[in-house]
Amino acid sequence: MKRERGCRQRVFRVRCQWEEIMRLRAMAKVNLGLDVVRKREDGYHDVRMVMQTIKMYDLLEITPRKAKGISLTTNLPYIPTDERNLVYKAAKLLMDEFQVDSGVRMQLHKFIPVAAGMAGGSSDAAAAMVGINQIFQLGLSEKQLMERGVLIGADVPYCVLRGTALAEGIGEILTPLPQLPFCYILIGKPGISVSTKTAYENLKLESIGNHPDIDGMVAAIEEQDLDGVIRRMENVFEPGIVRQYPVIGQIKTLMEENGAEKAMMSGSGPTVFGIFKDRKTLKQAYDRLIRSQLARNVFATQVFHTRRR
Ligand SMILES: C[C@](O)(CO)[C@H](O)COP(=O)(O)OP(=O)(O)OC[C@H]1O[C@@H](n2ccc(N)nc2=O)[C@H](O)[C@@H]1O
Ligand SMILES: Nc1ncnc2c1ncn2[C@@H]1O[C@H](COP(=O)(O)OP(=O)(O)OP(=O)(O)O)[C@@H](O)[C@H]1O
């Protein structure tokens, strides 16, 4: 009798879910600080990074369906929609593990620039994991989702967590930090793509002189000292990638000459983000960056403070 009731409840909950389209926001990140500490035996690198979610996102819609399998569509024709897409991979990983015997239709609306150093694909994967976990009531905790996320990519666990965080290991050892004090962010991505793998391969660890002061940045965040954070912003990938693509340096200079407290490359590039304290200066720099035609994608936004999806 007890088992029957449990079973009926489960079917009822699932039936409710058939009606629903789940919409999730997959937020972009910037790296306020990025240090690479050493190369590991598995080919990956140990890093120390301060991560920050910004108000810029892709939208992922998931609709459960009775037929088994995953179908995925996106608004960008050049993004794969099969196993090569991180959304597909993430959904499949969970659905296979839990032997889900129905399926999902997923629509991905991309707004985060692709191959930009803003964790677009990783964030989409994290959203897919959160969505699949909820729709099929898999009961996985955030920590369990993050453990599975790293199998998809090093940035995925952080994209599950979001907010301001210290990322260590290959990016999967995460310490949530207090929110960064409010500031505006200007994004400028030139019309080039940088492969993350190649960026790590080309990085000469022995030629990094002074490593970024990640501990000092964490302390500044704990003290809510935005200037202290800005003073310590540094990315070890930046010098090499800027040498290769001078346009990145030009975008940085333009932002800093137009009121950015500091401008820096995010991740392995090529996106540059600038930190602004007031909206008017942000707007002026935005207009100048558009007019300069240095960047293909220009976006004015702010840090994102809530962890709600
Ligand atoms: C540069 C950052 O964006 C900073 O947040 C991340 O470290 C990159 O994370 P990601 O794009 O999720 O990286 P993955 O998709 O897991 O790895 C892509 C490639 O980057 C290299 N890689 C990545 C992360 C890491 N800690 N060490 C590495 O050496 C590996 O060669 C790997 O084959
Ligand atoms: N959902 C997805 N969105 C964007 N790109 C995807 C996706 N799934 C797979 N890809 C492929 O992954 C590559 C990198 O895309 P992505 O936008 O995630 O890079 P990124 O912003 O540099 O990520 P990161 O900052 O984590 O290194 C692209 O070449 C793209 O074809």
UniProtKB/TrEMBL annotation:
Transmembrane intervals: none
Gene Ontology molecular function: 4-(cytidine 5'-diphospho)-2-C-methyl-D-erythritol kinase activity; ATP binding
Any Gene Ontology biological process: terpenoid biosynthetic process
Entry annotation: catalytic residues: K29, D155
Alphabetized Pfam families for the sequence: GHMP_kinases_C, GHMP_kinases_N
Family note: Belongs to the GHMP kinase family. IspE subfamily.
Pathways per UniProt: Isoprenoid biosynthesis; isopentenyl diphosphate biosynthesis via DXP pathway; isopentenyl diphosphate from 1-deoxy-D-xylulose 5-phosphate: step 3/6
Classification via InterPro entries: GHMP_kinase_C_dom, GHMP_kinase_C_sf, GHMP_kinase_N_dom, IspE, Ribosomal_Su5_D2-typ_SF, Ribsml_uS5_D2-typ_fold_subgr
Function: Catalyzes the phosphorylation of the position 2 hydroxy group of 4-diphosphocytidyl-2C-methyl-D-erythritol.
Official protein name in the record: 4-diphosphocytidyl-2-C-methyl-D-erythritol kinase
UniProt binding sites for ATP: P113, V114, A115, A116, G117, M118, A119, G120, G121, S122, S123
Reactions this protein catalyses: 4-CDP-2-C-methyl-D-erythritol + ATP = 4-CDP-2-C-methyl-D-erythritol 2-phosphate + ADP + H(+)
UniProt-listed Enzyme Commission number(s): 2.7.1.148
Gene3D superfamilies: 3.30.230.10, GHMP kinase, C-terminal domain
Top-level taxonomy: Bacteria, Bacillati, Bacillota, Clostridia, Lachnospirales
UniProt cross-references to PANTHER family, sorted A to Z: 4-DIPHOSPHOCYTIDYL-2-C-METHYL-D-ERYTHRITOL KINASE, CHLOROPLASTIC
HAMAP family found in the cross-reference section: IspE
GHMP kinase N-terminal domain segment(s): 85-163
Domain GHMP kinase C-terminal: 217-292
Key words of the record: ATP-binding, Isoprene biosynthesis, Kinase, Nucleotide-binding, Transferase
Superkingdom field: Bacteria
